[in-house]
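Support request, please re-run this one:
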Amino acid sequence: MAYSQAKLEDQCAFIGDATSTYGGITGLANAITSTAAISTAASSHTFSTIDLADVQAAFAKLPQYADNANAKIFCHKAVWNSVFLRLAYVSGGNNAVDLLTGSGQLSFAGYPVVLTQAMNAVTGNGAIMAHAGDMSQGVYFGDRRQTAVDFSNSALTSFETDMLAYRSTTRWDLVCANVGDATNAGSIVTLKAGA
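Re-run finished. Output below.
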């Protein structure tokens, strides 16, 4: 139950489209619409061909106030492996131990990397590959009522079937607030695959 609720929170934050599926919440994929905050990779650059210049162009759009100790890269595990890990391996300076053991904390170019399966894993042109920035400045999360778990032996046909019914509820909301305007990037920027 806790996993399902956490998954829905991630889906709302990253891909929410304001429909009832996401409780009317607009996530980063739909809230960040300004070209000032979206960096599109070179034409035809997708997961397997995006280069370091494409990634650096996205980082360059991040305002200085959001490029702080809280700044992170958010992406799907497929993007981590196909883009960021690939670029790290071809950069040179790695030895066999680095490639075999990796490190405890995923990071790229000094930014911690947070993997979320709620984000895009599609390799098509124009697909959102990653978000980078300070999530604490760009997305506001409100927890009205924490998770509550109840059970009953009389719900539905639980008594007749000698079973227990469990229910888990929570009440929260989130808003993607500081995502920039027509001329300025906000606290989070988006990297898209080439068109």
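Residues 2-145+173-192 form one domain. Residues 73 and 132 are 4 Å apart (CA to CA).
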